[in-house]
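# step 3/5: fold
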Amino acid sequence: MKLKDIALGTLVNISRFAVAATFIFSGYVKAIDPQGTQYKIQDYLEALHITGYMPDYATLGTAVLLGSIEFCMGIFLLFAVHRHLVSRLILIFMGIMTPLTLWLAIDNPIKDCGCFGDALLLTNWQTFYKNIILLAGAALLCKKPLLMHRFISKTNQWIVVIYTMLFILVSSTVSMYTLPQFDFRPYHIGVNIKDGMTIPKGAKEPKFETTFILEKNGTRKEFTLDNYPDSTWTFIDSKTVQTEEGYVPPIHDFSIQTIDTGEDITDSVISQKGYVFLFISPHLEVADDSNFGDIDRIYEYCQEKHYPFYALTASTEKGIQHWRDITGAEYNFYITDETTLKTIIRSNPGLLLLKDGTIIGKWGHNTLPDLTEESPALEKTPYGHITEKSITQKISEIILWYLLPLLIISLLDRIWHFSLWIRRNNILTRYINFLKQKRK
């Protein structure tokens, strides 16, 4: 084999591993956080002014499909499954994404493209340069697909296809039913909210402004905290924007205001000693109400044990009243930015448990803690302590249930094909004859 051919084969396989690793990582972090991917898709639609053309179920389905396709293409490329087809699909995919990210880099309608979810944040120009490299690698793979060495035979590659598709779809389904397995956001379990909002000494402080949209007699106006009107105005929405650059702490957009006066009670909530429950619902109008009975029982438990219970939402008073009408909710509601609530927990509604301002528990509406008025105090239950699995444990589970079986299958496949090659070429017979002749 010529040196030129060896160099080309090496370059092809290096490109293969680089492109495959990027697609696997990008696809997986999207697939295990389908709601986060859905929010990013909705940001794109809003930037293109076509939000109304895709309902929520369509954007959620697109999010699951996008993450699954990326992950599957990465795995198939890694194992050299359907080399011609997969390399062409990846080239087409990059041919679409590269111009899209160029538009993002030039116009900057969205600050983060969401390529790697919340796991890795890149600027739009960094994303474009990354895609240029991937596009070049995909073009090389598409031109020389047969130079990619197989990790599993053509006969058994269907096992990798089926197993990978099942794995990623189950992962997305579980994440939607519960919560994402990996939480890369600043509000993950173990974080102290107040510490996350702290700016180091000497750092330039950015400035933010919260604008409230209120309505009176059919007229809507925007107000700030400085000119917040009286209670005759009806709250409609709020938004927080950065007005000056500076050091931005991990948690910079968390605030809690009362509905009637707009009073900021954030510090008093996150500075409380002991346990505090936060009921989270970005929009009560579309919140899942199938488990409202469990939420009511938890609120009654808090009343019995004297634990503070705050319901945070970005809904209008009409939406809040609708929730109360259908659930009989007696807890008080407070206003928090919609994006912040969506970042805190990927469930509508969801529940947070703080202890001395530190997040020690997060539950989606399908997996709420089993607490009633007869339950013991939180410190005597598993819910009152951090029981989150470590990242090492989570990665170990993925290796155990997905990677290890694939590696074992690949190894057995290679051994089987090696034995076929030996039998096909009579290697064993030739070796035995060689030994006999040598003894003579």
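# step 4/5: annotate
The CA atoms of residues 152 and 410 lie 5 Å apart.
# step 5/5: archive (pending)
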